[in-house]
Amino acid sequence: MTGCGLIEMMKLKRVLLSCFLASSTCYAEYFSASLFNADWKVEQATASCRLKQNIPLYGVADFLHQTGESLRFSISEERFKPDIVKASLTIDVPPWRHQAVLSKVYLLSLDLAGGNQSYPRLSVYGVSAEFMLDALLKGMYPTFSYARATVGGLSPEVSVAVSAINFAKNYQQFDDCRKGFLPGGFKQRLEKSLFFKPGSQALNIYVLKQLTNAARYVKEVQGAELVIVSDTAIAGGRDNNWFVRRAKVIKGKLNDLGVANNKVSIKAGAHMASSDSQVIHLNVFGPDSLSSIYYRKGNTQLTATERQRLTLLMKYAQVFFSDRSLIISSYTDSIGKKANNLKVSQQRGDVIKHYLISQGMDEKKLQVRAYGERHPAKSNRFPRGRAQNRR
User: What range does the domain containing 299 cover?
Assistant: First the structure.
């Protein structure tokens, strides 16, 4: 490795490196498969391909490609140690060439243990992972360097060099396995919002296309399942009725497309995004419950929940009304002086307008129309009616 003492290549063990005076980097521990023991193995499944190298006394380096996902390249030390707090990835020459190279530093993700993953791993995804494939084909060594947290600060750096020996002879099998997979990012595109028009359960052409792709994913990925959830659950009970109706229509269409009933579930209420590649959330977006905000008497400020609802409404407007203006109509009840009520309704409208602008909406496309106590939705004779007029 660059800047460190010579490594005896025929040994397959953890090596404590001594640094020359001229060195710029020294690693406390260095791991790499030796010339005679380095090997790559391909593991194939219905919708995934894995190209794997065992690194003695350390763990595993592997490429994993699942249909509909981006390529992942990782190392995993198969034992529990303190948390990694600093890490990088470079492409180095083979250690026997003893020459310095200028190499780009690739940022890494630390994927924590959980589910089917027993140990944390350091990973790059997508384009960066594809670069690592190319580097290994050229005989280069992708090299991970990292430090762990200690009581005194950081541990000395550890270096893990992934060997290119015997890579080329197994690469072709891995590449053939990947052919025909759904494109990378396919799962993420499936989880984009399914937009409905107000008061409608009809499936538009965009929703139908998304459901067709979701059905294909479930058929190709073993163990995959679809969960229909609400993108607008923040609106509470007002959202739930429409969501359940639309979800049932979606589930019926998926059944028509050949998806088994037990592969689709409906979950009302708030939900958490899933990192499981086998679980697809179909996010139903219904604007019906987002069109009105109700205020307490005299109040003009937005709550955190109301700001969330406005953000969702803005998302809907940008999809369906990107070339039109958004009109903010503001009303009060009839308690108090008309002039004061008109002023309050103007203030409420302005607060909403300023919030939408702060979230990136074009000010020129926003209009505030303050009506004060005019055009009541309900009678002002009773408290419940007045509460519905303060909107």
Answer: 292-389
Radius of gyration of the chain, Cα coordinates, nearest whole angstrom: 29
173-225: pLDDT as tens digits: 999 998 878 777 777 788 888 988 888 899 999 899 999 999 988 887 778 89
- Angle of helix 167-178 relative to helix 127-137, nearest 10 degrees, comes to 140
Pair of tokens at residue 294: 């109700």
Q: Do 149 and 173 share a structural domain?
A: yes
Tell me whether residue 112 is exposed, middle or buried, using C-beta atoms within 10 angstroms of its C-beta: 0 to 12, 13 to 18, 19 or more.
exposed
Mean pLDDT of the chain: 83
* Length of the chain in terms of residues written: 391
And the tokens for 380? 């002002």
Same domain, 331 and 235: no
| CA torsion through residues 25, 26, 27, 32, sign | positive
- The Cα–Cα gap between 240 and 283 comes to 13
Q: Are residues 64 and 155 in the same domain?
A: yes
Residue 7 counted as domain residue: no
Determine the distance from the C-alpha atom of residue 9 to the mean position of all C-alpha atoms in its chain, rounded to a whole number.
41
CA 1 to CA 94: how far, in whole Å? Answer: 8
Residue 158, CB-side half-sphere exposure with 13 Å CA sphere? 22
Task: Give the pLDDT confidence of 87-126 residue by residue, as tens digits.
Answer: 999 999 887 777 666 678 888 998 887 666 778 899 999 9
Q: Report the candidate in 60, 117, 108 with the shortest Cα–Cα distance to residue 85.
A: 108
| Separation of alpha carbons 74 and 172, rounded Å | 19
User: How much is the average pLDDT of 281-301?
Assistant: 83
Q: Which of 339, 360, 188 is nearest to 275 (CA)?
A: 188
Q: Across the strands, what pairs with 66?
A: 48
> What's the pTM?
0.59
Compute the distance between CA of residue 252 and CA of residue 203 in angstroms, rounded to an integer: 11
* CA–CA distance, 370 with 331 (Å, rounded to integer): 6
